[in-house]
Amino acid sequence: xxxxxxxxxxxxxxxxxxxxxxxxxxxxxxxxxxxxxxxxxxxxxxxxxxxxxxxxxxxxxxxxxxxxxxxxxxxxxxxxxxxxxxxxxxxxxxxxxxxxxxxxxxxxxxxxxxxxxxxxxxxxxxxxxxxxxxxxxxxxxxxxxxxxxxxxxxxxxxxxxxxxxxxxxxxxxxxxxxxxxxxxxxxxxxxxxxxxxxxxxxxxxxxxxxxxxxxxxxxxxxxxxxxxxxxxxxxxxxxxxxxxxxxxxxxxxxxxxxxxxxxxxxxxxxxxxxxxxxxxxxxxxxxxxxxxxxxxxxxxxxxxxxxxxxxxxxxxxxxxxxxxxxxxxxxxxxxxxxxxxxxxxxxxxxxxxxxxxxxxxxxxxxxxxxxxxxxxxxxxxxxxxxxxxxxxxxxxxxxxxxxxxxxxxxxxxxxxxxxxxxxxxxxxxxxxxxxxxxxxxxxxxxxxxxxxxxxxxxxxxxxxxxxxxxxxxxxxxxxxxxxxxxxxxxxxxxxxxxxxxxxxxxxxxxxxxx
Length: 514
Known about the structure:
- The chain is an alpha/beta fold.
- Helix content is 42%, strand content 16%.
- 23% of the residues are buried.
């Protein structure tokens, strides 16, 4: 009999007894024992059913062995302790004469671990935060499709613990420079600086872990937080629960904004999408709160410390570096091309995403940063002066090959190159092609490709004609020029002359000139 029916039965018994029926009569009437009738008369609520303690004939002989394994776990490292599945596997291997089910072992181990204090589950105390007081920082890994290729990225996250607002930004690698740059973007997003930022013990921030919460921070990190005027706090090692706010934010962002895998043309476009998602997230209301994230963030902005007037010098300067005989400069572990003469001393400005080659305080070359080792990042435009003197080196050059792999050298460029060689010969034809590449670097590479395609359609095989098409106005500009020219010529508009009087000279009169 279920509990609901039992409660209803107790009510009927109590009413019957109040009407004068006897205990024995009620027992026979309802088909229950007299003991239950007395329980109903004693209380309207049926007593709880006593738990039956059953023997464990299969587990009993193995309990001592399980206790020995759990006792050894007390002194073992936390991540090298027995799981219930591991204990069951050992019992099956070491005691084949006493077969036992895994579920039986799992239930017993769960109870004993809780009693011995070995259970991984903990009780956490809910925390409340003032607006503008604390934000938490972390990295997490995610995948994105950039230019049609799936790549692994590191996503920076900073979450306000007061308002729940969060900022995210993607980088190829979680370097110290990327961390500091992401901080500045986050401060601009929030509109100020938090009093305290909480981190885990990432190597780019912490040089050495001391006793308790004391840390030896990196020199650059100390200078950075001094520049922006906030305090830093750190979690205990392997204690992600101490910054549970940002940990939960990472999971929410990954489930909601990285599913399906986001697509973008490049990393900058992806970060624009991520920023738009962060702004859109402000319309959400966190469970248990009365206002939206955006409204709470607006209130919090008034309590944040003001932004620093000047940005922190995040970029790393490397000087002196020498240009080698191939026009390359070695920056850290990779080679980057430059249009400078060999032997010149240059400065490299290394940022999280770019590398700039400086000479005489002018930018000579700019490249996307490569995080590999021993790679060459070469730009064909940097070698145009050399190729004009050595045109035979262009067809097999590494910079041209890299442009082909990056999709910057479409098939139409090879087609016009072949036409130029057929008309002018290989050497002069290649020089003509170099002049087109130079024009594309000045007027725009996309415009050059359009002009080349138009030239091929018209059957043109001359560089001067391609340049003429390149610099012609587009159809919209032509229409505007035609309208302007018509208005300008309107002032010169004159009526056509009337020739009727001259027709009299053609009349058939005597002496008239025929």
